[in-house]
Design a protein that fits this description.
lyase; single chain; metal-binding; binds zinc ion; carbon-sulfur lyase activity; CENP-V/GFA
Length: 137
């Protein structure tokens, strides 16, 4: 069964099927800016399992510290970043978990790793049993 999500104004809708191939928190400074929050929570699905259901996201690309290009796909009306694609993740889409419709999604899916762990905001505890990476593995 497809899991669905959308932006804050709901003009852009997406869905995915199957199990995510990865699910991580990211504590890098770019993710703070993009999310407007303290860290990001993201899962990865193969292109074939991803569907843009409605709307036309705007894109913004930046070269990451790795030297690889990464592109944010966001709603031109409400500004929500829904997903990202990049040269470090060929054939995959990185979805922001906050856009999923099911309010229980984050409770049912615990991140398995944390990227850029040393940049973690000090009062945020590591997730138990989540693998800690100094950067991008
Ligand atoms: Zn929107
Ligand atoms: Zn990040």
């Amino acid at each position: 069964m497809a899991q669905e999500g959308g932006c804050f104004c709901n003009k852009i809708r997406l869905s995915y099927t199957g199990e995510p191939s990865a699910h991580v928190l990211c504590h890098c400074l770019d993710c703070r800016k993009i999310s407007g929050s303290s860290y990001s929570n993201n899962f990865i699905v193969p292109d074939d399992n991803f569907k843009l259901v409605s709307g036309f996201p705007k894109t913004f690309s930046k070269t990451a510290d790795t030297g690889k290009k990464i592109t944010s796909h966001f709603c031109p009306d409400c500004g929500t970043t829904l997903f990202r694609t990049g040269e470090s993740f060929p054939g995959s889409v990185i979805i922001k978990i906050g856009v999923m419709d099911d309010p229980e999604w984050p409770n049912k899916n615990v991140p398995k790793g944390e990227l850029f762990a040393p940049e973690r905001v000090k009062w945020i505890a590591p997730i138990k049993n989540a693998e800690q990476f100094p950067g991008m593995p």
